[in-house]
Specification:
There is one protein chain. Helix content is 26%, strand content 25%. It is of the alpha/beta class. The strands form two sheets. It has a seven-stranded mixed sheet. β13 and β14 form a beta hairpin. α6 packs across α7. The mean pLDDT is 93.
């Protein structure tokens, strides 16, 4: 069986297809152009590019998924589409190949939050995935169903449903968490109905960051109301302090491991953070104000924090030019590591994972 990396690395050029939030395409294009990539095709939430050399796939704050592109299929007839997919695979991998996983997902058709839109697998892509799986499973796939979470170093066959009759096909090797999730969107089944979508943002940020939050540890959330993220932290067994002048959901308030401090974070004495190991901040304030508040906390002599998950509101994607400046400010805290990503559940904002 052939190795897709060897087949595609014999000589240039390199073709890539990327998904991002609807509206973030310009930031994706800017980032990849600095690395020698040239735009090939673009739709809201989806970008393809070409590089003259043999290079790694593009990466960046606003790239949700990246795959080696092997072709484009456009036909309203589903059977014709799948026949074309088999032809593409045969042409690209003439010696045969069994992919460990099949991921099929749609591009973001709307900005996140508009008309309550959320990214992820919809009914159309779910049907497409089932049809592809039934046709390819014997010869091309080693998985027992489509859209499973991939194990590290798995070979994943990717199909992006740009439109129902418009598919882009590629592959990638799964490594970091987002590359293991279908379409880069974390599949998660909450124990209870989440109080707000902040639950999903918190779940994604915790997993993506690699922070090992353990039961019994204390986490503080700044901007906690009504309690979506707190709900996820409590599910993980943590003690949680929620800081927000607004009211919390009664289900959170009544939890024995939750404490609500009805105030603004900047007004609190630093001793309120004593003993906390993790801090999350997701407030509707400017990033500079968030950083000033956190600066006063992490530089206090009693600070025992190990990790921060900070949501920075952009307001407009043009504000992304400030990200390097925010990184410079955070570097003054002498962190061990800083990661920045627009999470799949982020709206026009980015998440900083800071390991102290």
């Amino acid at each position: 069986m052939s190795d897709p990396a060897k087949v595609n690395s014999s000589s240039g050029p390199t073709f890539a297809m990327m998904c991002c939030a609807n509206g973030a395409e310009q930031q994706v294009k800017q980032g990849m152009s600095e690395d020698g990539w040239r735009l090939a095709f673009s739709r809201p939430g989806f970008v393809t590019a070409k590089h003259d050399g043999v290079v790694d796939l593009p990466s960046g704050v606003f790239i949700r998924t990246a795959s080696h592109s092997i072709g484009h299929l456009h036909n309203a007839d589903g059977e014709t589409q799948i026949a074309g997919l088999i032809d593409l695979l045969t042409a690209n991998f003439p010696l045969g190949l069994r992919f460990d996983e099949l991921h099929v997902w749609p591009r973001d058709r709307l900005p996140i939050g508009k008309f309550d839109f959320e990214p992820g697998i919809d009914e159309v892509s779910r049907l497409v995935a089932e049809n592809i799986y039934q046709s390819l499973s014997v010869q091309w796939l080693a998985c027992d169903a489509p859209n499973r979470i991939a194990e590290p170093e798995s070979r994943v066959l990717d199909v992006v449903v740009v439109d129902p009759a418009d598919w882009f096909v590629g592959w990638h090797t799964s490594r970091q968490w987002p590359s293991r999730w279908p379409g880069g969107v974390q599949p998660i089944q909450p124990q209870y109905e989440p109080i707000s979508r902040a639950y999903f943002k918190a779940a994604e940020s915790i997993t993506w960051s690699g922070f090992e939050m353990m039961p019994g540890q204390t986490a503080v959330e700044i901007g906690s109301a009504p309690g979506g993220a707190c709900g996820r932290l409590l599910e993980l067994g943590l003690k949680v302090i929620g800081i927000d002048p607004a009211e919390m959901d009664p289900r959170i308030v009544q939890h024995p491991r939750f404490k609500h401090i009805k105030a603004r974070a900047g007004d609190l004495p630093r001793r309120e953070y004593r003993g906390a190991k993790w801090l999350l901040a997701d407030s509707n304030v400017k990033p500079e104000k968030t950083l000033t508040t956190i600066d006063n906390i992490v530089n206090h002599r009693d600070c025992s924090l190990s990790g921060l998950l900070l949501t920075m509101k952009l307001g407009d994607y043009k504000a992304a030019h400030a990200i390097p400046h925010w990184i410079e400010r955070i570097q003054r805290w002498n962190p061990q590591d800083i990661q920045v990503r627009q999470l799949a559940r982020n709206r026009c904002e980015v998440c900083f994972a800071v390991k102290l």
